[in-house]
Specification:
Elements (H helix, E strand, L loop, with lengths): L3 H4 L1 E2 L4 E2 L4 H11 L3 E5 L5 E6 H8 L22 E2 L4 H11 L3 E6 L2 E7 H7 L2 H12 L2
Parallel strand pairs: 2-3, 5-6
Antiparallel strand pairs: 1-7, 3-4, 6-7
Helix pairs in contact: 4-6
């Protein structure tokens, strides 16, 4: 079975926990992505910031995106997958946590990201269908 390392997008760009949300949005726009891992100065993953987080948790609440740090939006322990974990574990983790993107870690170092699209390209249709169904239900 394929592993996270085999289907991930390697060298995922991070937004620093002390960078502004505006900086994160610019980075997202430049990279053409809708989410960025939030990395701390200790090289540990703090969370994942999405474009939706910016709209709902910053703009929607009237916060200043120039003064709001990305790290302020990191909530709890981030959901991750190990680089050597197999596709079944990726599917379980995404489904159980209802996430469309998973940071891939090796030890505590971020090595990539696995997105729903990566899973769709790498796995047979029935497995992908179950994942889409799990992510689409409340």
């Amino acid at each position: 079975m394929v592993t996270a390392r085999e289907i991930m997008t390697a060298d995922a760009e991070c937004v620093g926990e002390h960078e502004s949300v505006v900086d994160a949005a610019r980075k997202m726009a430049g990279l053409g992505v809708g989410a960025l891992p939030i990395c701390g100065s200790d090289e540990r993953l703090k969370g994942v910031l999405t474009d939706r987080d910016i709209v709902v948790k910053v703009l929607g609440q009237g916060k200043d995106p120039m003064r709001t740090e990305a790290g302020e939006l990191a909530q709890g322990k981030p959901v991750t997958i190990g680089a050597g974990d197999d596709a079944a574990e990726i599917l379980r983790t995404m489904s159980a946590n209802k996430v469309r993107r998973l940071p891939v870690i090796d030890g505590h170092i971020l090595v990539g990201m696995v997105a729903q699209a990566d899973v769709a390209r790498a796995l047979p249709d029935p497995q992908v269908g179950h994942l889409l169904e799990a992510l689409s239900t409340d």
